[in-house]
Amino acid sequence: MNIFLFSDFTHIEHHTLKIMQLRERKNRIGVYCLTGRDFSGKTTLLKKMQSKGKKIIGHSHDLLPKDHQWISELVSQVCPHTFITHTNAQEKCIFFTTIALAKINLAYTVAHRYKCTVLMDGYIYKWLAREWVRGTISDHAIQKLLPTLPKPDGLIIMNCKQPFTRPTAPSCLEYLASPDDFDHFQNQTLDKMMQMIQI
């Protein structure tokens, strides 16, 4: 799996486009996963790639084919506070893997249909890394689960620190105890993601 880590949003659009174009010139079919810190501009980058004619798969309705918008509906029905406080580890794993497998299978279907590389938002890494930091999913569970899941062909990790301002405050999914520990939690999550890549 090819891995690219970017800490500066200024150049990431250019580099991501170059990565996609290079794969196109080599007639590579596959899926690249986009992940990283919250508030780093991942959705913005996906929409920019979409505007340049690249095939993308995201979370929201406008970044999904019409016959797969149930993914967006399912995610939007999750109440963050309830999910964090009342969902046990096994239920979280089932939820994470259901969404992740649906998205990566869809991404590979699109890739083969259009003979291209698809850029996909998310996948399994950040969701599981958050729970690993919280201690609700054990090291053993991570070690057992990850090898059973398909791997993308490449991973683009965004470590940019809040270049954009969202119209909403961080969700409780994005920090540990309070919004004040947002940066610390994001750093811990990124560290766990980097560990997961090696599994």
3D architecture notes:
The termini are close together. By secondary structure, the protein is α/β, with parallel strands linked by helices. The radius of gyration is 16 Å and the shape is globular. The protein has a single domain, classed as Rossmann fold, CATH 3.40.50. The chain is 50% helix and 12% strand.
What's the topology here?
Elements lengths: L1 E5 L2 H17 L4 E7 L5 H10 L4 E2 L12 H7 L3 H7 L2 H26 L2 E5 L3 H10 L4 H7 L8 E5 L23 H16 L2
Parallel strand pairs: 1-5, 2-4, 2-5, 3-4
Secondary-structure content class:
alpha/beta
Number of domains: 1
Global Rg: 16 Å
Largest sheet: 5 strands, parallel
Given the structure, what is the number of helices? 8
Strand order of the largest sheet: 1-5-2-4-3
What brief labels describe this structure?
Rossmann fold, 5-stranded parallel sheet, 199 residues, 8 helices, alpha/beta
Short description:
With 199 residues, this protein is of the alpha/beta class. It contains eight helices and five strands. The protein has one domain: Rossmann fold, CATH 3.40.50.
